[in-house]
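It is worth pausing here to work through a concrete case rather than discussing structure prediction in the abstract. The textbook approach is simple: state the sequence, then state the predicted structure, then interpret. We follow exactly that order.
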Amino acid sequence: MFEKELTVSDRQKLASVGFDESEHERSSSFAMIDNLPKHPHKAPAGIDILTLEQAWEKEPELMDGLCWQLVDPEKDEFTREVKANSGSGYLVRVKRGSRSILPLQACFFMRSDLLRQRVHNIIVLEEGSSLSIINGCVSGEEVSEGLHIGVTEILVGENADLSYTMIHDWSEGMEVRPRTAIRVLKGGTFISNYISIKRSKITQSYPTCHLQGNGATAHFNSLIYAPKESLYDVGARVILDAPESKAEIISRTISAGGEIINRGELIGLKPGIKAHLECSGMVLGEGGTIRAIPILEAAHPDVEMSHEASVGKIAQEEISYLMARGIPEDQAVSLIVRGFLDTDIFGLPPYLRKEVDKTVALLENAF
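Step two, the predicted structure:
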């Protein structure tokens, strides 16, 4: 797809976030290098994949009805910057009844140091459609610092389902500022899997999902590992504004010297809704902090909402138990942490679990 544009090191970095240049077990690919989008290599039947510029040229009326409808361009300085600079990105539209078996992969690669990468993505699933997206964000070895702003607007139509997996591998001096909003209509399902296990200067992410049709469902899953000198201000907000809608937010966070602010907010507005929030954190060593901020808000008597929040360290008795069975202390710690980050809780399909497990396995060298 990239021909001779990238070095061996660049390609290894892309592979670290699940991007397979051979497109094995992928339906299609989209990539952006710095602020220059690469056209999709192929597009399966029933799915349109266009750069944002192509989308405005070919379907201006559609774009008028989609662009900046879910994310307010005046939300903050970062959305204003994307709006002012016509951020590059993609439009993915899955047509009515189309269901892709293999995932679409996308990658946003920063190759230039001190760059401000501005991205605006729009994803639309029409009625009865289905799609999985593996979205990798990564910077090259020559990048010491920079800024990535990613605006993403997602519409999941009636009885449609979208699985959206994000894997990040940024440089230590990077600022990462995604701004995401999702609308899910009747019977639709949105699943978000967010994985970041490398140090960045600051990552700030707080997507908002609006469940606006009867039986609409949202699941947010996240795995965060914060090394020293990193700040993760992350979480998710779901507004359940339709009867019988359901939501779940599950997060696993580990601080190994970094600061984590873990937010989760569920707002129940209609009868018959069910929602659960689970924030679990683990602090390894000295100097790290985790703040869990769970919020439940109910505006109707007929709702079921719950939350669990816990932050702690590895119990010494767990380490002692494994060491008594002949396992060295460092391996015992690794096993406990891997168990804490077990992706079984997310119910990922096999091809996604394979990519996520490869990323989590990289943590073994950190203990």
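Step three, interpretation. Residues 8-314 form one domain. The mean pLDDT is 89.
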